[in-house]
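Hi D.,

Good news: the full-assembly prediction came through. Inputs first.
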Amino acid sequence: MTLSVALSHRFAAFTLDLAFTAPPGVTALFGRSGSGKTTIVNAVAGILRPEHGKITLDGLTLLDTATGQTLPPHRRRIGYVFQDARLFPHLTVRQNLLYGRWFAPAGDGPGLARITELLGIAPLLSRRPGALSGGERQRVALGRAILSKPRLLLMDEPLAALDEERKAEILPYLERLRDEIGLPILYVSHSAAEVARLATTIVLLEDGRIAASGPAAEILSDPATAPIFGLREAGAILSARVEAQEGDGLTRLATPAGPLWLPRVLRPDGTPLRLRILAQDVMLALERPQGISALNVLPATISEIRIGEGPGALVRLQAGEAALLARITRRSAATLGLHKGQQVHAVLKAVSVAQENVGATAG
Amino acid sequence: MTDWLSPDEWRAVVLSLRVSLWATLASLPLGVLVAHLLARRQFPGKQLLNGLVHLPLILPPVVTGYLLLLTFGRKGPVGGILDQWFGIVFAFRWTGAALAAAIMAFPLMVRAIRLAIEAVDPKLEQAAATLGASRPWVFATVTLPLILPGIIAGAILAFAKAMGEFGATITFVSNIPGQTQTLPSAIYAFLQVPGGETQAMRLVLVAIAVAMTALLLSEWVSRAVARRIAGQ
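Then the structure:
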């Protein structure tokens, strides 16, 4: 599946003018509120008609304003999970889930039983949307979209209306969806954490234009894009695999940057994981530090230094096969005499763990 | 139990019920269509349609009745064609009474349904479209169930209005006992005769009973439907 989008549309406040291609996997559209993200997914869904644009999905033209070609939304077979779940209030959860089935072509695809199990909504089937919590509603909306057998799934900030607890409740389901159903997803978000956890490809938007786009690991470790994510949220992602549970409660992980030890990652050996290492949690040392409590120290080479406008500097590191991002002060960079190509040691203060897309790690 | 009303009185009551029922049911699909057009679509002449629908509410009923007579009378432009081609005659028949009642009640019906349609979140209809439903399907599976309380309210309102319709009816189809003499016409006729007050009063009570029953019924049905639709 490849989605290709080229749009231009004038709004009162700004102009949207961009083009990008979304390869299979989860493509995240990231940008501040009002940067045009929802406009893009609405155009892909066919709910909004841009002034100029061409949208194709696997060679099928969804919209081409040059030739006047347009496929109505109901014939596009593109699932859409809205920020506000938009469940049909007069139908039960089961009827909501099966709504798209009436119109979908016969054939295989995950069934009701599989989806309700995957999303943990089997106990809700006979209820009505009015009696569901926000998190439950969003999971039902997700199931409803998947069961309509879409060619592509659009998600417009599906977690934005939820509190942190509910978000944490739904994210694992989204990961399972990405990994087990293998449906291509266009995911709109303004949360760097969500994007770092889910995306295989990232498209960064700024004021209606594309600031950067490419594979998630590359974009997230790029010092140039870090200010868009926010300096506190900037950080690289790392593919890892559970290697062994050690006697003292630590789990050894194999990563392209070298082995890492984390407390109690209670997954079977071989489980693929995605690690997120915030730039502010990485310290740099010129020599391998001695007498330090940090367990995870990776030898690395400096591949880029970007001095910020404030007192900070961002350093991109090549550690084995993987890229890391460190945020240090300009003073430290000067004192240590850091320069491109230099050998350093990266001291990781904290690492967060998420499930990894099996398909993407294999590549 | 039937002997407390004379046969003529009974005929007036039954005729009124029949006229109102037909007026309501026959105009309901058109009422939903017009309400949908007015609530959701933009088209040239929308204000004209809106005005046309509401005209009977503002015009003196006798004017509406006279216009109906001119248009749907046997020599009228529409009535003539209907008579010659289809053998349908409205003038001085109970069908004419139903037509007059339907037209007089139409603005109330359309208004209630239109308000219900405007209260439906278009985002739900968009969601249905992304799930593969074409416009007619979206209407049938999402919009229609959600506006059902409004349709019921509109229908009952129209029925009650049709039961009470007098001016346009008597102008268009006159006051023929057993054929076009509805409940209000019968009451009016009795009041024209010395000593007819008692008979008129009996029919007045019947009219009150029918109106109250209709109101309570509508209240009950639309509450039940609204509960179902609220999603609880």
